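step=encode ok
step=design start
structure_in=
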């Protein structure tokens, strides 16, 4: 993550010296402005294809192109250079970026974890039959996460702290989500942190047992966001914001359409998505949870100024 953040900082400085930044969008032959939107290949991404299908972006003069990208910090350098112009990322990545001086701004909510008593969509899974049955049992154990100093490490650490331990009580190894099932079966790790649909798959195929919905246990309702460079043309941002509001409101009431669209973007079978559930949408920016994360990251020494990073991110 540090290397990716450094690349994004370099891109931001280069753009600043050139006097441009995210800039405006190109106009196509149909008269619409082409805007590239970077998305990780996960289930909630289907909401934005639904927004295109419903004509919400076209109504704002935007031809939205969805581009599958790596999530987290990997997409930052692209956004800072204007391709993609907008993207989705989690609160941990965006707060870290803003604290390091990268001029990113939140445009809207993207999606958020469900709050109890609904099932969580991020959790830790231990091997079937393991003595690890709750979050408190993770103390002294090795947990696989997809990115060090990312969402998994943050939420697992905070959940363990709430269970009476400390974030440093857990050892972490970095693995891609598709490789975690094999690592768990072989005993290479004690547990894995996974989002849906990996969570449902691992807890229903005999591989593992749920130890806890660590995102719910740490910061219930934690959201991900649509963001851009603060130098992106203000008119494009305003029109995107209006289209995103309509999209997210519609997606909240049409989960079936979101899941169907997500199968194309993510390659995840529809039946798997239907078993896994779906994050919430809507237009709430979840500023309370964003502030909570900023404070906790500052306490852990991950960022210098949590409140300042939050203020800098918000529209």
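sequence_out=
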């Amino acid at each position: 993550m540090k290397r990716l953040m450094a690349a994004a900082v370099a891109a931001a400085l280069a753009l600043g010296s050139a006097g441009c930044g995210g800039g405006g969008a190109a106009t196509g032959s149909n008269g619409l402005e082409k805007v590239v939107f970077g998305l990780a290949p996960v289930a909630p991404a289907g909401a934005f294809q639904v927004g295109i299908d419903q004509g919400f972006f076209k109504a704002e003069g935007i031809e939205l192109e969805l581009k599958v990208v790596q999530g987290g910090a990997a997409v930052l350098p692209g956004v800072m250079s204007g391709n993609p112009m907008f993207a989705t990322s989690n609160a941990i990545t965006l707060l870290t970026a803003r604290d390091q001086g990268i001029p990113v701004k939140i445009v809207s909510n993207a999606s958020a974890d469900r709050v109890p008593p609904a099932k969580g969509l991020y959790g830790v899974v231990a091997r079937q039959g393991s003595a690890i049955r709750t979050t408190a049992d993770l103390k002294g154990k090795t947990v696989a996460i997809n990115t060090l100093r990312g969402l998994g490490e943050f939420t697992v650490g905070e959940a363990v702290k709430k269970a009476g331990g400390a974030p440093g009580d857990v050892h972490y190894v970095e693995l891609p989500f598709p490789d975690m099932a094999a690592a768990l079966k072989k005993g290479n790790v004690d547990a894995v942190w996974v989002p849906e649909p990996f969570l449902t798959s691992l807890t229903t195929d005999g591989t593992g047992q749920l130890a806890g919905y660590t995102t719910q246990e740490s910061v219930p309702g934690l959201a991900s966001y649509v963001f851009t460079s603060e130098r992106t043309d203000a008119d494009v941002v305003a029109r995107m914001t209006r289209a995103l509001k309509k999209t997210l409101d519609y997606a909240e009431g049409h989960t079936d359409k979101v899941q169907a669209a997500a199968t194309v973007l993510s390659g995840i079978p529809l039946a798997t998505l239907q078993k896994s559930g779906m994050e919430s949408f809507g237009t709430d920016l979840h500023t309370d949870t964003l502030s909570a994360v900023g404070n906790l990251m500052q306490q852990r020494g991950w960022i210098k100024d949590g409140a300042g990073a939050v203020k800098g991110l918000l529209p």
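step=design ok
step=annotate ok -> The first helix runs from residue 2 to 18.
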